[in-house]
Amino acid sequence: MTTTSRAILIDQHGGPEQLKLVTVSVGEPGPDEIRIRHHAVGLNFIDVYQRSGLYPMTLPQQLGMEAAGVVEAVGEDVTHLKVGDRAAYASQPPGSYCELRVMPAKCVCKLPDAISFETGAAMMLKGLTAQYLLKKTQPQGGLQPGDFVLFHAAAGGVGLIACQWAKAMGLQLIGTAGSDAKCALAKANGAAFVINYSSEDFLARVKEITVGKGVKVVYDSVGKDTWDKSLDCLAPFGLMASFGNASGPVAPFAPGILGPKGSLYLTRQTLFTHIASRESTQAMADDLFEAVTSGKVQIHIDQRYKLEDVQQAHRDLEARKTTGCSILTL
């Protein structure tokens, strides 16, 4: 059986105007695949990177890395999902900007009844990212209650989840954001301290807050604009954890600078290494589902767009006009 779906694809890299609404054919799932009908689709900055060509892809290509909906069909060897299951995912390959798709089943998880489709679509990529950062990307000796961490873009989708989760872990999260309103949002979500990097020197403030000691780890998705000062915010043996580059990629640098700055550690993380296996994906998702259903973490959906308005959604993301999570409604 073949049916059709509205979908968003690009046939060349470029600006938001490259996002085209088309109709595509959707067939039956093969082995280890499912067909899922989406109820809501998540928007993420990685979608912008893929559209612009910063992360080059084979074209033409549907975009989108996360969504939630109902399983319509399952292929051979799929045992963890069945027809009719509510489900959500963050997964390669891209293609979630659509009503219906066939995709690998590996990273698709059953969605607890207590979590809505919109929340499921909004939280999977960002929530799993916050999970691997706070729980699996830790400095030497780990993180203990009371430890200081610096989190850039703390009012974004990943940031607001991280603020709440860090508070639940007893961490002193110092959040940066680009406006007083965004700083207030981060503070309301559990950041112990906030810094407006548009009007304050975040390095000087971090040193002041930590009484000159610095933080154990910096979580940075901003990239070029925050990089140099972030290294100087770290305590000796601290960890610089890069997981994005919203302001542009970091310029090459000599590893030798890490020694005089305090024998620092540096890592560049990506979610897709962490969810490479079915078992690790499920374990991380279970941790996220528990954090959300227990009330430790609330998912803030601050922007909703129709599928056909995806160009505006990308413009808003790139202009840093958004807070919390953004979704496409179907």
What labels describe this entry?
330 residues, alpha/beta, Quinone Oxidoreductase, Chain A, domain 1, Rossmann fold, 2 domains, six-stranded parallel β-sheet, 28% strand, globular
How would you describe the overall organization of this protein?
With 330 residues, the chain is of the alpha/beta class. The protein folds into 2 domains: 3-126 and 272-329, Alpha-Beta Complex (Quinone Oxidoreductase, Chain A, domain 1), CATH 3.90.180.10; 138-268, Rossmann fold. Helix content is 28%, strand content 28%. It has helices at residues 45-52, 117-136, 157-168, 180-188, 202-209, 227-232, 271-274, 278-293, 310-318; strands spanning 3-10, 20-26, 33-43, 61-62, 66-74, 86-90, 100-104, 108-110, 148-151, 172-177, 193-196, 215-220, 234-242, 265-268, 301-306, 325-329. The strands form 3 sheets. Strands 3, 5, 6, 7, 8, 15 and 16 form a 7-stranded mixed sheet that branches. A 6-stranded parallel sheet has the order 11-10-9-12-13-14, sandwiched between helices. It has a 3-stranded antiparallel sheet with strand order 2-1-4, with no helix packed on it. Helix 2 (117-136) crosses helix 3 and helix 2 packs across helix 8. The model has no long low-confidence stretch (mean pLDDT 96).
